[in-house]
Amino acid sequence: MFQFRMTHADITYDRPWKWVAGRWTCGSSWIKPYRHELTEQLAVTDGTRTAFVSTVRTATDAGTARPEVAVVDSAGFHRILAEIPASRDDWTTIDVSPGHAVRLRTGTACTAPQYLASAGGVLYGSWDLTDLREHQDPDRLDEVAVTRHLGLRARYSASTFWQDIRLLTERATASFGPEGSLTIQFPKAAEHTRARVARGGADPIPLLRDLLDLAVTRVPWIGSRTAVQLSGGMDSAVVALAMQTAPQGRGVTAGAVILDGERGNQQGERRKLLLKYLAGGWADVTVQALDHLPYGPESSFSSNNWISPSADIHTDALGALSSRFAQRGVTAVFTGIGGDELMATTSAEDEGGWGGFEPADLPSWLGPNAIDAIKDIDTAITPASAVPETALMAKAVCGPEFLRRGLWPLHPLTDPVLVRYCEWLPLEWRRDKRALREVVDRTGLPDGVSHPRIVENFQQVVTMAMRQYGVPRIRKMLAEGSPLIEAGLLDPDLLSSTADRLANGTLVKGDHEVVFVLLADSALIHR
Description:
Blueprint: E1 2-7, E2 18-20, E3 23-26, E4 29-33, E5 39-45, E6 50-56, E7 69-71, H1 74-87, E8 91-96, E9 102-106, E10 115-119, E11 122-126, H2 143-150, E12 165-167, E13 173-176, E14 182-185, H3 205-216, E15 226-229, H4 234-244, E16 253-258, H5 261-278, E17 283-288, H6 315-327, E18 332-334, H7 339-342, H8 368-373, H9 389-403, E19 408-410, H10 416-424, H11 427-430, H12 434-441, H13 447-450, H14 459-480, H15 483-486, H16 492-504, H17 515-524
Parallel strand pairs: 5-7, 15-16, 15-18, 16-17, 18-19
Antiparallel strand pairs: 1-4, 1-11, 2-3, 3-4, 5-6, 6-8, 8-9, 9-13, 10-11, 10-12, 13-14
């Protein structure tokens, strides 16, 4: 939730921090919080230590926090820092004192990612990774992190593509020492529970619905200034149903990226039925996926701007939708992130369960060094998190896209209480998202809303983009060279074969995912 520049030379006993023009300053050091109607900031000092706090408001907040630095006694200082993690889960703090390490901590939610870079005795930070590009050595790639990306083996970790840029992961503590070193200490593994055995025909849906309602109303959003990404899938549908019954649930904007062909037609019909049921003066905003193909002529991936390797491959379409939201005065957006994880089954419970989140086989284009690095992809990852790791990674992907447009993302399906409850659900209620489908079915909506006839996903859209725009991009990449090839992380001959199959229409399973190769290349070099 912060952008900042700090150096220990500025942190002295005779130089206090001051709030000036939307940020705290001290000499050449500055800390700028992300200011939004759903966030609040405060700063306190006991005369020695100074702490800066940015947190998401809750529905019970009095809303009295002020960013000006308040002077408190030592007991009050420690009490404030102790109360933050005890009372909420979405927060970030910075704690500074002369002669000691600067410490950053964050909660379990991590709605806004916090990236860090140390260079030349200065600590830089931002929720937007591209802000830190100039503070890293481009030759110091983290080959394991890049291999995770190229090999479609994402892991929740402090690592990024670059050894000099780190992510402050959930409940972690980052320390920037007086000598200029940056270290990150991981917390203990979060406790989780196992599924219970169904007994006596107990109905879990009423309590599930109550918890959904509570998760949606934890933050004081306003209907006319709020949108929901209502794709028509079960995750966003149950979020929208909970929003509709909230006290402020009128005047919401429902938005979606509409798929191609028969998938798009089915998606549109299902959304119409949902929106008719939701009523409440909701508006509907859509953009067409085919109008925003990745690597098309107008795509952000085809521009001269730096691209984050964690950017969503559908960032063009989602960005167009977010811009439409902002034009309508929307300042907060609900998503369905976390729904897959709520209903996930483990491999031990169900063949192809949790392990189904990543492909069984490695993609063909990996180079020799990437193949060698595969054995290390599970090293230096975080301990078990309170919220599922894949949901946290999804938050880090979408967060900056919203924040750049003044939109605060809300992810109720990652609420810790809801996560714990769904861990308890017996297998038969999680398999095929039965519990979420049941929430929709009990509204009386037609069966086709919760059980679509054909699968709706972006695979065909991405395949079209890769055949039309990806192939020329791959050819250019092979002709001009790439740091990924030079590092032995990509095999140019096998990548060329993938391009041939795309061009000839003789695709094999997974060829469309070469888009992740292009995304990695875009993060490293302009073309």
